[in-house]
Amino acid sequence: MSELARRLNQCKKPVGDQGKVVVDDMNERHYELTGWGLDKIKIDKAYKMLDIGCGGGRTVNRLSKAAEEGEVYGIDYSSDCVRWASEYNKELIKEGRVHISEASVEKLPFEDNKFDVVTAVETIYFWPNVEENIKEVNRVLKKGGKFIIINEIYDDDKFRERNNEFAKNSNMKIYSPEKLKSLLKNAGYLNVEMEIKEENNWICYVSEK
Ligand SMILES: C[S@@+](CC[C@H](N)C(=O)[O-])C[C@H]1O[C@@H](n2cnc3c(N)ncnc32)[C@H](O)[C@@H]1O
């Protein structure tokens, strides 16, 4: 397996010592990207929020700081990520403001209409059935709640060579801006808005239930 394939495999499901290195790196490298995306919504201090594919847990931490009277849930299907994200947020967990658990986006362990905001940072490429999975996200959102997808890769001519390498070395799905937008609309989301930072290949979608 090439070094790139190994890294992408760890991005898909970080595990073990190598996974810990990748997760620490993602906590650093995704911070600016995540901030760029989160700036597109207003976070009320009492919001209940969910971060899907929470990895090392930095986004959960950041959301919790923005909602000091709210609650933030993080889920990941890697039990190692659950452990690392729990460690990263241990004080907030003690205070009862953060909850991290092991689950897949395919079946979210939450009741209908629970969250004001659901975030998915750098994870949707790996979801097993995106059409169905975004419907499952919709189920747990409150009416009027927002679903934010933040990605540092979308299908575009400028980055085609690099992105083809990524796709060749993993089974990640790299969506065109219009494709994911139409999937969100077909899944029943309203007011689907998309913003692109072309020079970085960054993309963010904000959709509403
Ligand atoms: C590239 S990492 C991004 C981690 C974190 N969101 C960040 O920005 O640093 C992708 C994460 O999504 C998680 N993931 C992938 N598929 C998932 C699924 N079906 N359900 C839950 N988590 C998933 C992986 O375990 C991994 O932690």
Q: How would you describe this structure to a colleague?
A:
The protein has helices at residues 3-12, 16-38, 58-66, 79-88, 90-94, 130-140, 160-168, 177-186, and strands spanning 48-52, 71-76, 98-102, 115-121, 141-151, 190-197, 202-208. The longest helix has 23 residues, at 16-38. By secondary structure, the protein is an alpha/beta fold. The N and C termini lie far apart (41 Å). The mean pLDDT is 97. The chain contains eight helices and seven strands; from the N terminus they run ααβαβααββαβααββ. The chain is globular. The chain has one domain (3-208): Vaccinia Virus protein VP39 (Rossmann fold, 3-Layer(aba) Sandwich), CATH 3.40.50.150. A seven-stranded mixed sheet has the order 3-2-1-4-5-7-6, with helices on both faces. Helix content is 42%, strand content 23%. Strand 1, helix 3 (58-66) and strand 2 form a beta-alpha-beta unit. Bound molecules: S-adenosylmethionine (SAM). S-adenosylmethionine binds at residues 11-14, 26-27, 30, 52-56, 59, 75-78, 81, 104-105, 121-123, 126-128.
